Amino acid sequence: MADPKGFLTHDRELPQRRPVDVRIRDWKEVYEDFPAPKLTKQAARCMDCGIPFCHNGCPLGNLIPEWNDLVYRHDWQEAIERLHATNNFPEFTGRLCPAPCEAACVLGINADPVAIKRVEVEIIDRAFSEGWVTPVVPAKKTGKRVAVVGSGPAGLAAAQQLTRAGHDVVVFERADAIGGLLRYGIPEFKMEKRHIDRRLEQMRAEGTEFRTSVNVGADITAEQLREQFDAVILSGGATQWRDLPVAGRSLRGVYQAMEYLPPANKDFENSPINARGKHVVVIGGGDTGADCIGTAIRQGAASVTQLEIMPQPPASRPGAQPWPTFPTLFKMESAHEELADGEGDRVYAVSTTEFVDDGTGQVRALRLVQVEGPQSGFKPIPGTEREIPADLVTLSMGFVGPEKGALLEGLGVEYDARGNVARDKTYMTNVDGVFVAGDMGRGQSLIVWAIAEGRAAASGVDRFLTGETALPYPILPTARPLV
Ligand SMILES: Cc1cc2nc3c(=O)[nH]c(=O)nc-3n(C[C@H](O)[C@H](O)[C@H](O)COP(=O)(O)OP(=O)(O)OC[C@H]3O[C@@H](n4cnc5c(N)ncnc54)[C@H](O)[C@@H]3O)c2cc1C
Ligand code: SF4
Predict the structure, then answer these.
(1) Atom number, ligand 2, closest to the C-alpha of residue 117
(2) Are 20 and 33 in contact (CB under 8 A)?
(3) pLDDT digits over 314-339, tens only?
(4) Which DSSP letter does residue 434 get?
(5) Which of 7, 75, 154, 432 lies 20 to 30 Å from 244, alpha-carbon distance?
(6) Which pLDDT value is given to residue 268?
(7) DSSP label at residue 190
(8) Residue of 120, 160, 181 best suited for mutating to test ligand 1, as the one with most atoms within 8 Å of CB
(9) Which of ligand 1's atoms lies nearest the C-alpha of 179?
(10) Is 438 in the pocket of ligand 1 (CB under 6 A)?
(11) Nearest residue CA, atom 2 of ligand 2?
(12) Cα dihedral angle (438, 441, 445, 451), rounded to 10 degrees?
């Protein structure tokens, strides 16, 4: 244990976000730098518990107390060794993970938890800037060929593990750039794309091959894929979005979040779907909704309102969600701070009943009604109907599973009861040699789970190809967050 009194002498501290009126004028990440002496104090708060619940909270099993101790002792190089031992991409999780590890931190029982995620990102950022992140080239090649379909965090983690195990790995991506939702879903102000590019450089140097603008199932058939590769990993995500089939849904100006965010991520200033001067309504109170808010504000929206059907969650842990579960709490993301009226622009317990036409086929307003809680099936409360202005609406209501198109049909994979691609303990589908990892098998989830699945599926593939494996297997496909 680094500092036996650290948790008594230092309070939890995080870097400041840049002032709202400054940061909404650019697309850069919102956080200021965090000086090393401050970070050392945060690492010193770790109690090095006998049973580190944070290990269990993190799906990757990150060795959190170990690297907290190493940071406290200024041994940053060893810290990145320990961090990379369990996590291929700490620069992604350190910026984007909701940190279930912190919800499980023992200190969190009666004080603020250790700032684990911040320590994580500072370790990897320093490692990159010191030049310690170098290609890990395999000592021996196996001659086996693996196709990875989809280049999100699951596909990338699997590809890196398998390339390092000596296999020839090709990652196929139908978009024009690698990264999955990291690239075209998550906006620059949450994670600048240069972090993806920097990691891809390492992966290319290790020998992973990337082919973009290839829609597998159409540009290359499932049959051709099977012929050309010894094993396949499906990591195409859960891209089938949930819709809102109410009156006026087909009006111009009503988009899915994943129709709105990708073009904005490609061209920040001149996206074809632009919020400039418009009244924007974001339907859905989650992270995707927050990403739409921050994007619309940077594009110069006249107003932004976020609607959520659920009641407002509590600010602190309710009795029904005790430590170490991952509670549903009221969050003030950076994008929420940027709303003109602060939290007043976040409207809870409402349901959209209609999109209103301006007479030309373009949406001009949204009609909504206040609803009772989920126990009543969100029963509308009579007399609460009202209209709010809406020139641009984004639907951010989650995803229902993978697209069941030519690729999955061509391969003949089976689905589980939720409509995700079914797999066994080794992440293999019902089709011999075809594996599945990430949101495509788990359903809509998080980056940390996708990386963990990619790592675990890689170990299944390695064993399938060679009869044995030394690759780690962090989670079972059936593992779920502690809620
Ligand atoms: C807007 C948004 C914001 C989010 N923010 C966060 C966050 O802050 N933190 C967090 O932890 N999680 C976040 N998530 C969830 C997280 O991004 C996902 O859980 C994660 O990216 C899933 O990884 P994946 O590798 O399984 O799939 P994805 O990242 O979805 O990648 C799948 C890739 O496969 C490609 N593909 C699909 N089919 C084919 C095909 N036939 N041929 C070739 N390529 C194909 C797709 O184009 C895509 O690029 C967010 C999700 C969204 C939508
Ligand atoms: S990956 Fe997420 S859960 Fe794991 S240590 Fe990092 S922030 Fe915590």
Answers:
(1) 7
(2) no
(3) 999 999 999 999 999 999 999 999 99
(4) E
(5) 154
(6) 86
(7) T
(8) 181
(9) 49
(10) yes
(11) 99
(12) -20
